[in-house]
Amino acid sequence: MLTALPVYNEQAHLERVLDQVVSQADDVLVVDDGSTDDTAKLLAQRDDIRVITHYPNRGYGAALRTAFCYAKTHDYDVLVTIDCDGQHEPQRIRELAARCAGDIDIVSGSRYLSASESGGLAAPEDRKAINQTITGEINQRLGLSLTDAFCGFKAYRVAALSPLQLREDGYAMPLELWVQAAHHGLKIEEAAVPLIYLDEKRSFGGELDDAERRLRHYRDVIDRALARVNVRHPAADVDPCAGLVASGVAVPTAG
């Protein structure tokens, strides 16, 4: 089992979260997506993780795709992804991984299942509303029954990632993932995780900080993903990472 964390300028949370993750996981990969704060310096001080660095920043989706590629090329059976912003509970890593067994391809954390417990502050109203709107549209268009389309805490059966052709670099990549997963008939279930929001401002980048523009962008990503779902990149038939990470943009370093 591999646990991967996409990070960008997370110096405030990095050491605390990593200490917790390494105590709960087998192997740990950090994808530093071109951080400009002290994240890289803090990562270089550790010998209990593996680090891949993007130069320059490419986006949350690109970092996840690099983690997918790493898990595939290093023959892991299960990949767990967890954010490094202090809003997930690392002690649930093995629970999610264990549920991603048998015929389950993706176990996705949900902060809105009835069994979920709230921790920290309530979700910002615009983020909650957009999540609910997009989750409903995803379900309607793809025939899924998700309650949380955006949670970054997931477990994947690595073999099930092979047919996926992912192209989105930004925060909306998980929406493309759902389109691909539905198209390829992957089996999905959700696991309740606590709803934890911290008292700090998070940016989606530029104009996406505006809720209405962000909602339009998410819908555009879904439309693009549906439009190209039947267009297969020919390299994918021979390259296990085709469409997951472009050559030359990730630099691995020993942890």
UniProtKB/TrEMBL annotation:
Q: Which Gene3D superfamilies match?
A: Spore Coat Polysaccharide Biosynthesis Protein SpsA, Chain A
What one GO molecular function would you report for this record? undecaprenyl-phosphate mannosyltransferase activity
Q: What is its EC number?
A: 2.4.1.54
Which domain of life does the protein's organism represent?
A: Bacteria
**Pfam families, per the entry:** Glycos_transf_2
Boundaries of each Glycosyltransferase 2-like domain copy?
5-161
- InterPro entries membership: Glyco_trans_2-like (IPR001173), Glycosyltransferase_2 (IPR050256), Nucleotide-diphossugar_trans (IPR029044)
Which enzyme class?
transferase
This protein's UniProt keywords? Glycosyltransferase, Transferase
User: What protein name is recorded for this chain?
Assistant: Undecaprenyl-phosphate mannosyltransferase
